[in-house]
């Protein structure tokens, strides 16, 4: 049946899963034929990638802690949530490393820390440490711990090592422990900052926070780094996921040079004007030689004009007319 709302494939699959759950667990009347329905296939999209100049233009427009979060996403390949939820203990400024805890798929991984980010983090952490001191003086300074670790180590909630690298501006009262807790900065704060920066930078691409991660992977591959190394830095289970970035590398399309760039004189639109353009090129070469005519440039200009007029080409150093020019009409 045609869906007039034209929802995405993920929305259709979510609705189907909700129906199956409702009949199986709520009504307790499993319907086997629901499991046999074909799930909607999610289309594969090519990721948006910024150039290095575009990344620099966006970072120049971002201010405050959001800029540092963006620098970590681009310099370390972190996802937005991974960057916002970093803890102090997960940073190794001396070794220039970041330990990502419970990333996508609840997996840990080790990634690099850019030199520029390390310098900025050193200054940023001093301000965060001062904020933690003021919270401790006010009888606060608590943070949420993973799972039920707070039962095993209750003092860890106020330990500096477990504090967020990017704490939120305000805290809240935890309903379970009745303690004043400070959460990490919300993702929407960084998303709004990036959206405003992209508009101010005048970039026409559909750029979001995750675009920094796409650009990180693509630029590493363009620099010649091994794809398996990039896979480990990104935390992909399968190298085929990382290979997606080889299709958007800045080398044309998959490293193939366009045939339009191989045409002489600009293709089919070329005409007699090519001879004048070639002559102008020869004249500029003469100017570079101090006014002495360049014989090779003049020869190239003459051959270019003949090639445009007769459709001929150079073969073994000799100019040959197009064969169809000498054939009689049948």
For this entry, give a set of tags.
three-stranded antiparallel beta sheet, two-stranded antiparallel sheet, 14 helices, disordered C terminus, 3 domains, hpI Integrase, Chain A, single chain, mainly alpha, 46% helix, 330 residues, 8% strand
**Rg, please?**
31 Å
CATH class of the largest domain: Mainly Alpha
Under the CATH scheme, the architecture of the largest domain is Orthogonal Bundle
Report the strand count.
7
Topology-level CATH name of the largest domain: hpI Integrase, Chain A
Helix content range of the residues, please? 40-55%
Number of domains: 3
SSE string, helices as H and strands as E: HHHHHEEEHHEEHHHHHHEEH
Q: What amount of the residues lies in strands?
A: 5-15%
Strand order in the largest sheet: 1-2-3
Structural class of the secondary structure composition? mainly alpha
Globally, the shape reads: globular
Q: CATH H-level name of the largest domain... which superfamily?
A: Intergrase catalytic core
Let me know the largest β-sheet. Answer: 3 strands, antiparallel
The averaged pLDDT comes out at 81
Number of helical regions: 14
Report how far the terminal alpha carbons are from each other: 60 Å
As residue ranges, the low-confidence spans are 267-279, 281-293, 305-311, 324-330
Multimerization state: single chain
Account of the protein in words:
The chain is mainly alpha-helical and 330 residues long. Helices cover 46% and strands 8% of the residues. The protein has 3 domains: 1-43, no CATH class; 47-253, Intergrase catalytic core (hpI Integrase, Chain A), CATH 1.10.443.10; 271-326, no CATH class. It is built from 14 helices and 7 strands. Strands 1-2-3 form a 3-stranded antiparallel sheet. It has a two-stranded antiparallel sheet with strand order 4-5. Helix 12 packs antiparallel against helix 13 (295-310). The radius of gyration is 31 Å and the shape is globular.
């Amino acid at each position: 049946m045609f869906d007039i709302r034209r929802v995405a494939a993920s929305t259709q699959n979510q609705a189907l899963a909700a129906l199956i759950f409702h009949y199986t667990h709520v009504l307790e009347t499993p319907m086997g034929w629901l499991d046999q329905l074909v799930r909607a296939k999610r289309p594969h999209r090519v990721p948006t990638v910024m150039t290095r100049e575009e990344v620099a233009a966006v970072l120049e427009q971002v201010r405050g802690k959001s800029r540092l979060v963006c620098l970590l996403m681009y310099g370390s390949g972190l996802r937005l949530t991974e960057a916002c939820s970093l803890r102090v203990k997960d940073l190794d400024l001396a070794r220039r490393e970041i330990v990502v805890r419970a990333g996508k798929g609840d997996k840990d991984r080790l990634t690099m820390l850019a030199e520029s980010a390390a310098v900025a983090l050193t200054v940023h952490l001093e301000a965060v440490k001062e904020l933690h001191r003021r919270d401790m003086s006010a009888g606060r300074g608590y943070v949420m711990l993973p799972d039920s670790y707070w039962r095993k180590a209750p003092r860890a909630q106020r330990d500096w090592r477990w504090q967020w690298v990017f704490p939120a501006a305000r805290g809240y009262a935890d309903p379970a422990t009745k303690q004043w807790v400070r959460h990490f900065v919300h993702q929407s704060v960084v998303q709004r900052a990036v959206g405003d920066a992209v508009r101010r930078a005048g970039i026409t691409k559909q750029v979001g926070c995750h675009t920094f991660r796409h650009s990180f992977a693509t630029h590493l591959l363009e620099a010649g780094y091994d794809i398996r190394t990039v896979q480990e830095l990104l935390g992909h289970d399968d190298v085929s996921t990382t290979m997606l970035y080889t299709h958007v590398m800045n080398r044309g399309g998959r490293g193939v040079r366009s045939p339009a760039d191989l045409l002489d004189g600009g293709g089919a639109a070329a005409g007699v004007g090519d001879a004048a353009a070639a002559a102008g090129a020869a004249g500029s070469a003469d100017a570079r030689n101090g006014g002495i005519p360049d014989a090779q440039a003049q020869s190239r200009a003459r051959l270019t004009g003949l090639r445009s007029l007769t459709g001929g080409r150079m073969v073994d150093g000799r100019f040959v007319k197009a064969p169809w020019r000498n054939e009689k009409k049948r």
